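Appendix B. One record, verbatim.
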Amino acid sequence: MVTRAPAENIAPARWPKRVRFLRIPRIGLSLRVDIVSVAVTVAFLLVAALVGVWSLGASTTDTPGLGFVETLEVLTGRIGGAPANHVAAWLPVVITAALGGAALALSGAIFQTITRNPLGSPDIIGFTTGANTGALVALLVLGLGSGGATIGALLGCLLTGLIVYFLGMRGGTGNYRFIIVGIGISAMLISLNGYLIATADVQNAGAAAAWGMGNLRNLTMSDTVPVFVTLAVLVPALIAVAPRMRMFELGTDSARSKGVDTGVTQAILLVIGIGFAAATTAIIGPIVFVALVAPQVAARLTPSPGIPLVTSAAVGATLLVSSEAVARTLLAPETQLPIGVVTSSLGGVYLLFLLLAQSRKARP
């Protein structure tokens, strides 16, 4: 015979000690804060800031660059002249790298959450490849120049997202169909991109190929505006829909059983995720693996269930700022690498680690 303990003797469930609640009585708001996640996020933001300041003072010529303290004095307005001009020239690059890395990471976090697959990211699914196709059509076919390439990249990413959505949504995004369709579309677009470059004249083909590896050079502060606007618009939208997105971590059926309109929610999340990827890709080109790696790194370093969005954004910003600094200074002054070379190397190491980890789990 099984007896049940009286209800009054059952201890109430308690939150882990790392979880605290921040209450704001004036507006009746209560926020759940995970101390470990906050610490990890702050650590990555600090690394991004330190690398960014060092990158602002780094030199790509034979002349020595600025020291870390000297760069800080320029940023605080204590030093002007040539040092200030040097910092001003690279400030848009570092800002765009930080904002773009955060946007790509958020895009990857969205797709990995709703597909429940670590391969769900805009570069694997083909959205960034579609952006590259749109830019190539604008540059090589229509001859619209760099401004046209930005618009073409934006439209190419959005159009690719729509195609993958309508072809891969049968059965929902929670299975492999969505990702497989995206990989197939990406493969076809890569072939088209190769054809466009091969049939173009040498000068235009070289410029297009360089843009396809990621381009953060010769940016101005006006180039940072699209990424600023995208984050300002889409981040509040993501915050509003995030509670429903969390329901997808247990599967589409579980989310539907809890009253979530899965079709509408998936469509909204896809638009937000594509928007993050499109705005960044249109400015700096198709950056690979940041959206793939950042959410997984954030999930592994924090004890929170699922993929933490804020931490993912911090990791993405750190990855892209660091990659830009390495690409610009590693072989300087002889040459400056495209940032895509560095991010591809990091992504290759991550994929190798992922395959080894999965093979270990598969062993009896």
